[in-house]
Amino acid sequence: MGLLFILHRGRSMNPNDLLNLFQGLATLVASEPHIIFARIGLIALGLLLVYLGKKEVLEPLLMIPMGMGMSAVNAGVLFLTPDLIKATGGTQGNLFVSPIVSDTNNLMYLLQVDFIQPIYTLTFSNGLIACFVFMGIGVLLDVGYVLARPFESMFLALCAEFGTIATFPIAVAMGLTPPQAASVAMIGGADGPMVLYTSLSLARDIFVPITVVAYLYLGLTYGGYPYLIKLLIPKHIRAIKMPPPEKVTIITSTEKLIFAVITSAVLCFLFPVAAPLFLSLFVGVAVRESGLTHFAKFIEETLLYGSTFFLGLTLGILCEANTILNPVVLKLLILGILSLLLSGIGGIAGGYVMYFLRKGQYNPTIGIAAVSCVPTTAKVAQKAVSAVSPDSIILPEALGANISGVITTATLAGIYVTLVPLFMK
Amino acid sequence: MPIEKTIQLAAFAYLIAAIISFFVALLIKGIYVVINFFRKEDKEAPQAEALTGLTPEVIAAITAAATLALKKHVRVGRVRYWATPESAWSRHGRVSIMTSHQVKR
Questions:
Q1: Number of domains in chain A
Q2: Is residue A83 part of a domain?
Q3: Do A415 and B17 make contact, defined as CB atoms within 8 angstroms?
Q4: Mind listing the pLDDT tens digit for each residue in A191-220?
Q5: How far apart, in Å, are the Cα atoms of A69 and each of A47, A210, A310, A314, A344?
Q6: CB of A418 within 8 Å of any CB in chain B?
Q7: Is residue A209 part of a domain?
Q8: Most CB contacts within 10 A, which of A71, A274, A351, B62?
Protein backbone atom coordinates (compact mmCIF):
# COMPACT_ATOMS: atom_id res chain seq x y z
CA MET A 1 0.00 0.00 0.00
CA GLY A 2 2.82 2.37 0.89
CA LEU A 3 4.52 1.63 -2.43
CA LEU A 4 1.33 2.23 -4.39
CA PHE A 5 0.77 5.55 -2.65
CA ILE A 6 4.31 6.67 -3.49
CA LEU A 7 4.03 5.65 -7.13
CA HIS A 8 0.70 7.47 -7.37
CA ARG A 9 2.33 10.64 -6.07
CA GLY A 10 4.90 10.26 -8.84
CA ARG A 11 7.96 10.20 -6.59
CA SER A 12 10.69 7.62 -6.88
CA MET A 13 11.57 5.62 -3.80
CA ASN A 14 14.90 5.49 -2.14
CA PRO A 15 15.84 1.90 -1.11
CA ASN A 16 16.36 3.27 2.40
CA ASP A 17 12.71 4.31 2.52
CA LEU A 18 11.75 0.72 1.75
CA LEU A 19 14.07 -0.48 4.48
CA ASN A 20 12.51 1.95 6.96
CA LEU A 21 9.20 0.19 6.47
CA PHE A 22 10.80 -2.72 8.28
CA GLN A 23 12.59 -0.98 11.09
CA GLY A 24 13.82 -4.17 12.72
CA LEU A 25 15.89 -4.73 9.59
CA ALA A 26 16.78 -1.06 9.16
CA THR A 27 18.14 -0.77 12.70
CA LEU A 28 20.15 -3.97 12.17
CA VAL A 29 21.75 -2.56 9.02
CA ALA A 30 22.42 0.77 10.77
CA SER A 31 24.15 -0.87 13.79
CA GLU A 32 27.77 -1.59 14.57
CA PRO A 33 28.96 -5.04 13.38
CA HIS A 34 29.24 -6.45 16.91
CA ILE A 35 25.65 -5.40 17.64
CA ILE A 36 24.47 -7.04 14.39
CA PHE A 37 26.09 -10.34 15.35
CA ALA A 38 24.88 -10.03 18.93
CA ARG A 39 21.26 -9.42 17.90
CA ILE A 40 21.24 -12.31 15.42
CA GLY A 41 22.99 -14.54 17.96
CA LEU A 42 20.52 -13.68 20.71
CA ILE A 43 17.54 -14.27 18.41
CA ALA A 44 18.98 -17.70 17.62
CA LEU A 45 19.74 -18.34 21.32
CA GLY A 46 16.16 -17.43 22.22
CA LEU A 47 14.83 -19.96 19.71
CA LEU A 48 17.29 -22.54 21.05
CA LEU A 49 16.08 -21.97 24.61
CA VAL A 50 12.48 -22.53 23.50
CA TYR A 51 13.56 -25.78 21.80
CA LEU A 52 15.52 -26.98 24.85
CA GLY A 53 12.61 -26.06 27.10
CA LYS A 54 10.18 -28.01 24.92
CA LYS A 55 12.51 -31.02 25.02
CA GLU A 56 12.74 -30.55 28.83
CA VAL A 57 16.54 -30.38 28.74
CA LEU A 58 16.07 -27.03 30.51
CA GLU A 59 13.14 -26.00 32.70
CA PRO A 60 10.30 -25.25 30.25
CA LEU A 61 8.34 -23.02 32.63
CA LEU A 62 11.16 -20.49 32.47
CA MET A 63 12.93 -21.18 29.21
CA ILE A 64 9.95 -20.95 26.88
CA PRO A 65 8.88 -17.42 27.92
CA MET A 66 12.52 -16.40 28.29
CA GLY A 67 13.43 -17.65 24.83
CA MET A 68 10.41 -16.00 23.24
CA GLY A 69 11.19 -12.70 24.99
CA MET A 70 14.86 -12.87 24.04
CA SER A 71 14.19 -13.42 20.35
CA ALA A 72 11.40 -10.83 20.21
CA VAL A 73 13.32 -8.02 21.91
CA ASN A 74 16.37 -8.46 19.69
CA ALA A 75 14.25 -8.60 16.55
CA GLY A 76 11.89 -5.75 17.49
CA VAL A 77 14.35 -2.85 17.60
CA LEU A 78 13.16 0.41 16.03
CA PHE A 79 14.17 4.03 15.55
CA LEU A 80 12.68 5.90 18.48
CA THR A 81 10.34 8.88 18.20
CA PRO A 82 11.52 12.22 19.66
CA ASP A 83 9.54 11.64 22.87
CA LEU A 84 11.09 8.23 23.39
CA ILE A 85 14.56 9.53 22.54
CA LYS A 86 14.09 12.14 25.26
CA ALA A 87 12.85 9.53 27.73
CA THR A 88 15.45 6.83 27.09
CA GLY A 89 18.45 8.80 25.88
CA GLY A 90 19.03 6.55 22.85
CA THR A 91 18.10 6.73 19.16
CA GLN A 92 17.31 3.03 18.82
CA GLY A 93 15.32 0.97 21.25
CA ASN A 94 12.32 -1.26 21.75
CA LEU A 95 8.77 -0.94 23.00
CA PHE A 96 9.19 -3.64 25.64
CA VAL A 97 11.19 -2.16 28.48
CA SER A 98 13.81 0.47 29.25
CA PRO A 99 15.56 -0.88 32.34
CA ILE A 100 18.10 1.85 32.95
CA VAL A 101 15.75 4.85 33.06
CA SER A 102 15.56 6.34 36.54
CA ASP A 103 14.23 9.90 36.07
CA THR A 104 10.69 9.99 37.46
CA ASN A 105 9.06 11.91 34.62
CA ASN A 106 10.70 9.73 31.96
CA LEU A 107 9.73 6.61 33.88
CA MET A 108 6.09 7.71 34.14
CA TYR A 109 6.04 8.28 30.39
CA LEU A 110 7.59 4.89 29.68
CA LEU A 111 5.15 3.15 32.01
CA GLN A 112 2.44 4.20 29.58
CA VAL A 113 4.34 3.27 26.46
CA ASP A 114 6.51 0.20 27.03
CA PHE A 115 4.74 -3.14 27.19
CA ILE A 116 6.61 -4.83 30.06
CA GLN A 117 7.75 -1.63 31.82
CA PRO A 118 5.01 -1.80 34.52
CA ILE A 119 5.93 -5.41 35.33
CA TYR A 120 9.64 -4.57 35.40
CA THR A 121 9.38 -1.35 37.44
CA LEU A 122 6.70 -2.45 39.91
CA THR A 123 7.60 -6.09 40.50
CA PHE A 124 11.01 -6.94 39.06
CA SER A 125 13.40 -4.15 39.98
CA ASN A 126 12.22 -4.09 43.61
CA GLY A 127 12.46 -7.87 44.04
CA LEU A 128 8.71 -8.33 44.51
CA ILE A 129 8.52 -11.02 41.85
CA ALA A 130 11.30 -12.95 43.63
CA CYS A 131 9.28 -12.73 46.84
CA PHE A 132 6.16 -14.02 45.08
CA VAL A 133 8.10 -17.02 43.79
CA PHE A 134 9.41 -17.60 47.29
CA MET A 135 5.87 -17.55 48.69
CA GLY A 136 4.98 -20.25 46.18
CA ILE A 137 8.03 -22.28 47.21
CA GLY A 138 7.01 -21.91 50.86
CA VAL A 139 3.55 -23.30 50.15
CA LEU A 140 5.07 -26.30 48.37
CA LEU A 141 7.59 -27.05 51.13
CA ASP A 142 6.94 -29.64 53.81
CA VAL A 143 9.24 -28.49 56.58
CA GLY A 144 8.52 -31.68 58.49
CA TYR A 145 11.56 -33.26 56.85
CA VAL A 146 13.75 -30.55 58.38
CA LEU A 147 12.05 -30.75 61.74
CA ALA A 148 12.66 -34.49 61.93
CA ARG A 149 16.47 -34.18 61.59
CA PRO A 150 17.41 -30.54 62.08
CA PHE A 151 21.11 -30.79 62.92
CA GLU A 152 21.92 -33.26 60.18
CA SER A 153 19.96 -31.30 57.55
CA MET A 154 21.49 -27.96 58.55
CA PHE A 155 25.02 -29.39 58.58
CA LEU A 156 24.63 -30.73 55.03
CA ALA A 157 23.10 -27.44 53.87
CA LEU A 158 26.05 -25.54 55.30
CA CYS A 159 28.51 -27.81 53.47
CA ALA A 160 26.59 -27.25 50.26
CA GLU A 161 27.10 -23.48 50.61
CA PHE A 162 30.82 -23.99 50.02
CA GLY A 163 30.48 -22.74 46.44
CA THR A 164 28.71 -19.57 47.60
CA ILE A 165 31.61 -18.79 49.91
CA ALA A 166 34.60 -19.95 47.85
CA THR A 167 33.50 -18.21 44.65
CA PHE A 168 33.46 -14.79 46.33
CA PRO A 169 37.26 -14.29 46.64
CA ILE A 170 37.81 -16.01 43.28
CA ALA A 171 35.44 -13.53 41.62
CA VAL A 172 37.22 -10.59 43.24
CA ALA A 173 40.57 -12.02 42.05
CA MET A 174 39.10 -12.14 38.52
CA GLY A 175 38.42 -8.41 38.63
CA LEU A 176 34.83 -8.10 39.82
CA THR A 177 33.97 -5.63 42.54
CA PRO A 178 33.02 -7.19 45.91
CA PRO A 179 29.28 -6.49 45.46
CA GLN A 180 29.38 -8.04 41.99
CA ALA A 181 31.41 -10.97 43.34
CA ALA A 182 28.92 -11.59 46.16
CA SER A 183 26.02 -11.48 43.69
CA VAL A 184 27.58 -14.01 41.32
CA ALA A 185 28.72 -16.21 44.23
CA MET A 186 25.06 -16.56 45.26
CA ILE A 187 24.57 -18.71 42.13
CA GLY A 188 26.17 -21.47 44.24
CA GLY A 189 23.14 -21.31 46.51
CA ALA A 190 21.15 -22.61 43.53
CA ASP A 191 18.18 -20.42 44.35
CA GLY A 192 16.97 -18.18 41.50
CA PRO A 193 14.92 -15.70 43.56
CA MET A 194 17.83 -15.32 46.01
CA VAL A 195 20.27 -14.56 43.17
CA LEU A 196 17.86 -12.00 41.74
CA TYR A 197 17.32 -10.37 45.12
CA THR A 198 21.03 -10.23 46.01
CA SER A 199 22.10 -8.88 42.63
CA LEU A 200 19.35 -6.22 42.72
CA SER A 201 20.59 -5.15 46.15
CA LEU A 202 24.33 -5.28 45.48
CA ALA A 203 25.04 -5.17 41.74
CA ARG A 204 22.14 -3.56 39.97
CA ASP A 205 24.31 -2.70 36.95
CA ILE A 206 24.82 -6.37 36.04
CA PHE A 207 21.80 -8.01 37.64
CA VAL A 208 20.38 -8.98 34.24
CA PRO A 209 23.33 -11.10 33.05
CA ILE A 210 23.83 -12.58 36.55
CA THR A 211 20.20 -13.66 36.81
CA VAL A 212 20.05 -15.01 33.26
CA VAL A 213 23.24 -17.03 33.82
CA ALA A 214 21.90 -18.27 37.16
CA TYR A 215 18.60 -19.50 35.74
CA LEU A 216 20.30 -21.13 32.76
CA TYR A 217 22.71 -23.04 34.97
CA LEU A 218 20.05 -23.97 37.53
CA GLY A 219 18.12 -25.56 34.73
CA LEU A 220 21.22 -27.60 33.91
CA THR A 221 21.79 -29.00 37.42
CA TYR A 222 19.35 -31.81 36.65
CA GLY A 223 21.60 -32.91 33.83
CA GLY A 224 25.02 -32.14 35.33
CA TYR A 225 24.87 -33.23 38.97
CA PRO A 226 24.33 -36.95 38.26
CA TYR A 227 27.77 -37.01 36.60
CA LEU A 228 29.30 -35.34 39.64
CA ILE A 229 27.71 -37.97 41.88
CA LYS A 230 29.05 -40.79 39.72
CA LEU A 231 32.50 -39.21 39.72
CA LEU A 232 32.77 -38.69 43.47
CA ILE A 233 30.75 -41.52 44.98
CA PRO A 234 31.57 -45.15 44.10
CA LYS A 235 28.70 -47.44 43.18
CA HIS A 236 28.82 -49.56 46.33
CA ILE A 237 28.59 -46.45 48.52
CA ARG A 238 25.78 -44.98 46.41
CA ALA A 239 23.87 -48.21 47.00
CA ILE A 240 23.91 -47.86 50.81
CA LYS A 241 20.42 -48.24 52.23
CA MET A 242 19.47 -45.79 54.92
CA PRO A 243 18.45 -47.61 58.11
CA PRO A 244 14.83 -47.09 59.17
CA PRO A 245 14.42 -44.51 61.96
CA GLU A 246 14.50 -45.92 65.49
CA LYS A 247 11.47 -43.87 66.41
CA VAL A 248 8.81 -42.64 64.01
CA THR A 249 8.64 -38.89 64.45
CA ILE A 250 5.20 -37.43 63.83
CA ILE A 251 5.40 -33.72 63.12
CA THR A 252 2.05 -31.99 63.33
CA SER A 253 0.93 -28.96 61.35
CA THR A 254 0.97 -26.92 64.55
CA GLU A 255 4.64 -27.67 65.11
CA LYS A 256 5.46 -26.74 61.55
CA LEU A 257 3.48 -23.51 61.89
CA ILE A 258 5.24 -22.59 65.13
CA PHE A 259 8.59 -23.32 63.50
CA ALA A 260 7.70 -21.06 60.53
CA VAL A 261 6.56 -18.18 62.71
CA ILE A 262 9.48 -18.24 65.14
CA THR A 263 12.19 -18.85 62.54
CA SER A 264 10.81 -16.07 60.33
CA ALA A 265 10.87 -13.61 63.21
CA VAL A 266 14.36 -14.63 64.31
CA LEU A 267 15.87 -14.44 60.83
CA CYS A 268 14.15 -11.10 60.08
CA PHE A 269 15.50 -9.80 63.38
CA LEU A 270 19.04 -10.85 62.46
CA PHE A 271 18.98 -9.73 58.83
CA PRO A 272 16.42 -7.01 58.14
CA VAL A 273 17.85 -6.46 54.64
CA ALA A 274 16.67 -9.94 53.66
CA ALA A 275 13.46 -9.77 55.70
CA PRO A 276 11.17 -9.66 52.61
CA LEU A 277 12.61 -12.98 51.44
CA PHE A 278 12.37 -14.65 54.85
CA LEU A 279 8.83 -13.43 55.30
CA SER A 280 7.80 -14.58 51.82
CA LEU A 281 9.17 -18.09 52.35
CA PHE A 282 7.72 -18.59 55.79
CA VAL A 283 4.36 -16.99 55.08
CA GLY A 284 3.96 -19.62 52.38
CA VAL A 285 4.81 -22.33 54.90
CA ALA A 286 2.42 -20.76 57.44
CA VAL A 287 -0.43 -20.62 54.92
CA ARG A 288 0.11 -24.29 54.09
CA GLU A 289 0.30 -25.47 57.69
CA SER A 290 -2.64 -23.33 58.82
CA GLY A 291 -4.90 -25.18 56.42
CA LEU A 292 -5.85 -21.99 54.55
CA THR A 293 -6.64 -23.96 51.44
CA HIS A 294 -7.95 -21.05 49.37
CA PHE A 295 -4.84 -18.98 50.06
CA ALA A 296 -2.62 -21.98 49.49
CA LYS A 297 -4.31 -22.72 46.17
CA PHE A 298 -4.01 -19.08 45.07
CA ILE A 299 -0.33 -18.87 45.99
CA GLU A 300 0.59 -22.32 44.69
CA GLU A 301 -1.17 -21.89 41.36
CA THR A 302 -1.97 -18.33 40.30
CA LEU A 303 0.77 -16.44 42.10
CA LEU A 304 3.59 -18.94 41.60
CA TYR A 305 2.88 -19.74 37.97
CA GLY A 306 2.10 -16.11 37.15
CA SER A 307 5.31 -14.90 38.76
CA THR A 308 7.38 -17.63 37.11
CA PHE A 309 5.88 -16.76 33.72
CA PHE A 310 6.57 -13.02 34.02
CA LEU A 311 9.98 -13.67 35.55
CA GLY A 312 11.01 -15.74 32.53
CA LEU A 313 9.43 -13.33 30.05
CA THR A 314 10.99 -10.24 31.64
CA LEU A 315 14.41 -11.89 31.89
CA GLY A 316 14.26 -12.78 28.23
CA ILE A 317 13.18 -9.27 27.26
CA LEU A 318 16.02 -7.81 29.32
CA CYS A 319 18.51 -9.84 27.24
CA GLU A 320 18.77 -7.13 24.66
CA ALA A 321 22.08 -6.99 22.79
CA ASN A 322 23.32 -3.75 24.33
CA THR A 323 22.66 -5.04 27.87
CA ILE A 324 24.18 -8.46 27.40
CA LEU A 325 27.27 -7.30 25.54
CA ASN A 326 28.96 -6.50 28.78
CA PRO A 327 32.61 -7.66 29.08
CA VAL A 328 31.80 -9.14 32.48
CA VAL A 329 29.41 -11.75 31.01
CA LEU A 330 32.19 -14.21 30.17
CA LYS A 331 33.45 -14.02 33.75
CA LEU A 332 29.90 -14.60 35.00
CA LEU A 333 29.59 -17.70 32.84
CA ILE A 334 32.79 -19.15 34.32
CA LEU A 335 32.08 -18.13 37.90
CA GLY A 336 28.49 -19.36 37.80
CA ILE A 337 29.45 -22.88 36.78
CA LEU A 338 32.34 -22.86 39.27
CA SER A 339 30.03 -21.81 42.08
CA LEU A 340 27.51 -24.59 41.40
CA LEU A 341 30.30 -27.15 40.99
CA LEU A 342 31.92 -26.21 44.31
CA SER A 343 28.52 -26.29 46.06
CA GLY A 344 27.88 -29.80 44.73
CA ILE A 345 31.32 -30.94 45.86
CA GLY A 346 30.78 -29.33 49.26
CA GLY A 347 27.43 -31.08 49.67
CA ILE A 348 28.91 -34.47 48.80
CA ALA A 349 31.82 -33.82 51.18
CA GLY A 350 29.26 -33.16 53.92
CA GLY A 351 27.59 -36.44 53.00
CA TYR A 352 30.91 -38.23 53.41
CA VAL A 353 31.42 -36.66 56.84
CA MET A 354 28.04 -38.07 57.89
CA TYR A 355 29.01 -41.42 56.33
CA PHE A 356 32.12 -41.64 58.51
CA LEU A 357 30.37 -40.34 61.61
CA ARG A 358 27.65 -42.95 61.22
CA LYS A 359 30.23 -45.68 60.54
CA GLY A 360 29.05 -46.41 57.02
CA GLN A 361 25.31 -46.34 57.84
CA TYR A 362 24.68 -43.18 55.82
CA ASN A 363 24.40 -42.62 52.08
CA PRO A 364 26.62 -39.64 51.16
CA THR A 365 24.54 -39.02 48.00
CA ILE A 366 22.12 -37.21 50.28
CA GLY A 367 24.70 -34.41 50.49
CA ILE A 368 24.04 -33.24 46.92
CA ALA A 369 20.40 -32.63 47.86
CA ALA A 370 21.55 -29.93 50.25
CA VAL A 371 22.20 -27.69 47.22
CA SER A 372 18.95 -25.86 47.52
CA CYS A 373 17.37 -26.24 44.08
CA VAL A 374 14.06 -27.51 45.54
CA PRO A 375 13.10 -30.27 44.77
CA THR A 376 15.41 -30.88 41.78
CA THR A 377 18.52 -31.90 43.69
CA ALA A 378 16.57 -34.17 46.06
CA LYS A 379 15.15 -35.92 43.01
CA VAL A 380 18.62 -36.11 41.45
CA ALA A 381 19.95 -37.76 44.64
CA GLN A 382 17.11 -40.29 44.79
CA LYS A 383 17.43 -41.13 41.09
CA ALA A 384 21.18 -41.67 41.42
CA VAL A 385 20.63 -44.06 44.33
CA SER A 386 17.69 -45.87 42.71
CA ALA A 387 19.80 -46.50 39.60
CA VAL A 388 22.16 -48.72 41.63
CA SER A 389 19.80 -49.88 44.40
CA PRO A 390 16.13 -49.73 43.34
CA ASP A 391 14.70 -50.36 46.81
CA SER A 392 16.83 -47.77 48.59
CA ILE A 393 14.82 -44.70 49.61
CA ILE A 394 16.71 -41.58 50.65
CA LEU A 395 14.08 -39.03 49.66
CA PRO A 396 12.98 -38.04 53.20
CA GLU A 397 16.55 -37.28 54.27
CA ALA A 398 17.27 -35.63 50.91
CA LEU A 399 14.25 -33.36 51.22
CA GLY A 400 15.26 -32.38 54.71
CA ALA A 401 18.68 -31.31 53.44
CA ASN A 402 17.07 -29.67 50.39
CA ILE A 403 14.78 -27.48 52.45
CA SER A 404 17.53 -26.61 54.92
CA GLY A 405 19.50 -25.44 51.91
CA VAL A 406 16.83 -22.82 51.21
CA ILE A 407 17.17 -21.51 54.76
CA THR A 408 20.99 -21.39 54.68
CA THR A 409 21.01 -19.74 51.23
CA ALA A 410 18.58 -17.09 52.45
CA THR A 411 20.80 -16.61 55.53
CA LEU A 412 23.90 -16.18 53.36
CA ALA A 413 22.06 -13.73 51.10
CA GLY A 414 21.24 -11.69 54.18
CA ILE A 415 24.85 -11.91 55.39
CA TYR A 416 26.29 -10.78 52.06
CA VAL A 417 23.80 -7.95 51.60
CA THR A 418 24.61 -6.73 55.14
CA LEU A 419 28.36 -7.32 55.32
CA VAL A 420 29.65 -6.43 51.85
CA PRO A 421 28.58 -2.76 51.96
CA LEU A 422 30.03 -2.52 55.49
CA PHE A 423 33.40 -3.88 54.37
CA MET A 424 33.43 -1.53 51.42
CA LYS A 425 33.37 1.53 53.67
CA MET B 1 39.54 -4.72 48.16
CA PRO B 2 42.72 -6.78 48.69
CA ILE B 3 42.36 -10.53 48.20
CA GLU B 4 43.25 -11.27 51.85
CA LYS B 5 40.39 -9.10 53.00
CA THR B 6 37.94 -10.83 50.68
CA ILE B 7 39.04 -14.24 51.98
CA GLN B 8 38.60 -12.96 55.53
CA LEU B 9 35.14 -11.64 54.63
CA ALA B 10 34.17 -14.95 53.04
CA ALA B 11 35.41 -16.94 56.03
CA PHE B 12 33.62 -14.57 58.43
CA ALA B 13 30.38 -14.91 56.44
CA TYR B 14 30.68 -18.72 56.55
CA LEU B 15 31.28 -18.62 60.29
CA ILE B 16 28.20 -16.46 60.90
CA ALA B 17 26.14 -18.73 58.63
CA ALA B 18 27.36 -21.77 60.59
CA ILE B 19 26.46 -20.20 63.94
CA ILE B 20 23.02 -19.14 62.71
CA SER B 21 22.39 -22.57 61.17
CA PHE B 22 23.32 -24.22 64.46
CA PHE B 23 20.93 -21.98 66.36
CA VAL B 24 18.13 -22.54 63.86
CA ALA B 25 18.62 -26.30 64.30
CA LEU B 26 18.61 -25.80 68.09
CA LEU B 27 15.45 -23.71 67.78
CA ILE B 28 13.75 -26.43 65.76
CA LYS B 29 14.73 -29.06 68.30
CA GLY B 30 13.59 -26.78 71.13
CA ILE B 31 10.19 -26.17 69.54
CA TYR B 32 9.76 -29.90 69.06
CA VAL B 33 10.70 -30.69 72.67
CA VAL B 34 8.37 -28.01 74.09
CA ILE B 35 5.45 -29.10 71.92
CA ASN B 36 5.97 -32.73 72.87
CA PHE B 37 5.99 -31.75 76.53
CA PHE B 38 2.51 -30.27 76.21
CA ARG B 39 1.17 -32.89 73.92
CA LYS B 40 -1.50 -34.99 75.68
CA GLU B 41 -3.56 -36.46 72.89
CA ASP B 42 -0.75 -38.75 71.86
CA LYS B 43 -1.18 -40.60 75.14
CA GLU B 44 -4.82 -41.35 74.24
CA ALA B 45 -4.27 -42.00 70.58
CA PRO B 46 -2.37 -45.29 70.95
CA GLN B 47 -5.18 -46.66 73.13
CA ALA B 48 -7.79 -45.54 70.66
CA GLU B 49 -5.67 -46.95 67.88
CA ALA B 50 -5.60 -50.25 69.68
CA LEU B 51 -9.38 -50.12 70.13
CA THR B 52 -10.35 -48.96 66.67
CA GLY B 53 -7.34 -50.11 64.62
CA LEU B 54 -6.84 -46.70 63.03
CA THR B 55 -3.68 -46.89 60.94
CA PRO B 56 -2.26 -44.63 58.22
CA GLU B 57 -3.74 -47.00 55.65
CA VAL B 58 -7.20 -46.48 57.14
CA ILE B 59 -6.75 -42.71 57.04
CA ALA B 60 -5.73 -42.99 53.38
CA ALA B 61 -8.89 -45.01 52.71
CA ILE B 62 -11.04 -42.39 54.51
CA THR B 63 -9.38 -39.62 52.46
CA ALA B 64 -9.98 -41.47 49.22
CA ALA B 65 -13.63 -42.13 50.10
CA ALA B 66 -14.21 -38.48 51.07
CA THR B 67 -12.54 -37.28 47.87
CA LEU B 68 -14.79 -39.51 45.79
CA ALA B 69 -17.91 -38.52 47.67
CA LEU B 70 -17.26 -34.79 47.62
CA LYS B 71 -15.71 -34.82 44.15
CA LYS B 72 -12.90 -32.53 45.21
CA HIS B 73 -9.52 -32.94 46.83
CA VAL B 74 -9.77 -33.67 50.55
CA ARG B 75 -6.98 -33.63 53.10
CA VAL B 76 -7.53 -35.20 56.50
CA GLY B 77 -6.03 -32.60 58.80
CA ARG B 78 -6.86 -34.16 62.12
CA VAL B 79 -8.51 -37.24 63.57
CA ARG B 80 -10.01 -36.85 66.99
CA TYR B 81 -11.34 -39.68 68.99
CA TRP B 82 -14.51 -39.27 70.92
CA ALA B 83 -14.39 -40.36 74.55
CA THR B 84 -15.17 -44.01 74.02
CA PRO B 85 -16.42 -45.89 70.97
CA GLU B 86 -19.59 -46.77 72.89
CA SER B 87 -20.66 -43.09 73.01
CA ALA B 88 -19.96 -42.52 69.29
CA TRP B 89 -23.63 -42.73 68.30
CA SER B 90 -24.83 -40.21 70.85
CA ARG B 91 -21.96 -37.91 69.99
CA HIS B 92 -22.79 -38.19 66.31
CA GLY B 93 -26.37 -37.33 67.02
CA ARG B 94 -25.43 -34.16 68.88
CA VAL B 95 -23.10 -33.12 66.02
CA SER B 96 -25.88 -33.68 63.47
CA ILE B 97 -28.26 -31.46 65.39
CA MET B 98 -25.69 -28.70 65.86
CA THR B 99 -24.61 -28.63 62.24
CA SER B 100 -28.13 -28.81 60.84
CA HIS B 101 -28.45 -25.05 61.32
CA GLN B 102 -25.30 -24.22 59.37
CA VAL B 103 -25.70 -22.34 56.12
CA LYS B 104 -24.53 -24.52 53.30
CA ARG B 105 -21.60 -22.95 51.43
A1: 2
A2: yes
A3: yes
A4: 888 888 889 889 888 888 888 888 878 777
A5: 10, 17, 10, 7, 31
A6: no
A7: yes
A8: A351
